[in-house]
Amino acid sequence: MSHKIAGRFFILCLCVSSFAVLAQSQTTSSTTNLLVNITQIKFSLAPGASKTFTLPKVSQAIRIEISAPSSNGGVQEPSELMWALVNWDSGTDGSNQITWIGTNSDGSTLGSNSLQSTTIANIYGGTSAAVISSLKISDAATGTLAITRSSATTSIDGNYVVRIYY
Length: 166
Description:
Layout: H1 2-25, E1 38-45, E2 50-54, E3 62-67, E4 81-89, E5 97-103, E6 109-113, E7 119-125, E8 130-139, E9 144-149, E10 158-165
Antiparallel strand pairs: 1-10, 2-9, 3-4, 3-10, 4-5, 5-6, 7-8, 8-9
């Protein structure tokens, strides 16, 4: 009886090792260079003010995260976040245009290009869900973006943290 159990155990081990080899041969390879550059900018904006920054000249997509944490002690509705994935087609063979997918603070998305639009994403707030802040294209040829704070919908300064991953 013990020889029968040992034999089945041996066959089971062979099957498991065969599946492990098969699974290993089907895995996709990934890049070993996982270096990511991160730029962080912190600033405050008065209502009606804006802050510009230039995208890095890279050949891959750039992720931009923007948070506008409020200091009024309340909970921002719907959120204090917007983000975007942008591609700046720069360089000698580039079109000097920007394409993007932007996510607004309410979770809705915008996808477009600098030939069609300039607004990438918005932070909404208040009972009327008005635009409080916007991420916009300032100059596509130079890769300059701007964060603006509305003077029509808010009367308080806003604090911002911008993280750029490339």
